């Protein structure tokens, strides 16, 4: 199988004749042989492993609707109906009021970009003149920077206090052109839930749009709470929250790419829609930037949510918390400090004397694809139910990596996409 040489153009002419599926399948399996063994729980990002049963359900559902297009609800009322139910499940889980509404998107970045676009257009309708700005803690996801770049908005990142957003500092950064406050539930780097209630008080006092990025926690925190954890108010129960992004393909265990963007009031959602035209076919109205909307992602989300139900999700999320607690206890025995007090599925931990970058290389050499924070230097894990089975193996390999932390195993640059 030819491979592209580094820094060389990739020109691969199509084969003159086609290949059989068995031959192609064999080649694809060979290509995947060097990938991380995520089904064995060897990755702490990119994949959310809820087990073989869930994998079978979402693959079958995706295949059933792989050709259908959510762009055409009149042609595919099945997809429109499934999307309404999926969004309705998310609204109910996040305690949205009766007048709320939402939409499915292709992922967390898509949801965040559309939330920013909606708040910008809402502000313009209310008289905003000039360049708008977003006020976000240093821990907010870079998707907000992307949105600001795309829409010529200013993003004002402010320092955090003990890894959490500081509402007072954020309020100081606001001015007449601020269109959005940003909070996370939880933030990606440390897995901590920002003080959303206090941020909501700022938003109400200044009549600002507060968006909660719950792309990681939206389908995890509700079930962790059902299982008995006491979490700070972070969803629509917190006054002042106008929109929430919540990914289905993370702790909803649905197929990529699937997310939800939810609004406290359906009147707010009207500012999200693109109304493009005129052109020879008239106007084109789309709820998100994308035109084509893969039917497979919608169908798989509907199927997994109904397959697991509340009982299934509570069981899966219990395993996530147990894995996190086991790893927290294990790394502390190895001399690490856990950053903050995580309550969901992400944990970051640092060591006063060990080189975290060297440890990451050691783990990579042992088959683990995990992440790290640069500031402060720390190891980072985003855990799945599968990790409850392999926590001891991870801790053993971490201990071994500490023994030979000077190793020179190659390590790819981390990328934390959505």
Task: Write a concise synopsis of the structure shown.
It is built from 12 helices and 13 strands.
Brief descriptors of the model:
418 residues; alpha/beta; Aspartate Aminotransferase, domain 2; Aspartate Aminotransferase, domain 1; 2 domains; seven-stranded mixed beta sheet; four-stranded antiparallel beta sheet; 13 strands; globular
Characterise this structure.
The protein is built from twelve helices and 13 strands. The chain has 418 residues and is an alpha/beta fold. It has two domains: 61-304, Type I PLP-dependent aspartate aminotransferase-like (Major domain) (Aspartate Aminotransferase, domain 2), CATH 3.40.640; 309-402, Aspartate Aminotransferase, domain 1. Strand 10 and strand 11 form a beta hairpin. It is globular, with a radius of gyration of 22 Å.
Give the SSE layout.
Elements: H1 21-31, H2 52-64, H3 77-93, E1 101-105, H4 108-125, E2 133-137, H5 143-151, E3 154-158, H6 167-173, E4 178-184, H7 196-206, E5 209-213, H8 221-226, E6 241-247, E7 259-263, H9 266-269, E8 274-279, E9 282-286, H10 295-333, E10 336-338, E11 346-351, H11 356-365, E12 371-373, E13 378-382, H12 387-403
Parallel strand pairs: 2-3, 2-4, 4-5, 5-6
Antiparallel strand pairs: 1-7, 6-7, 8-9, 10-11, 11-13, 12-13
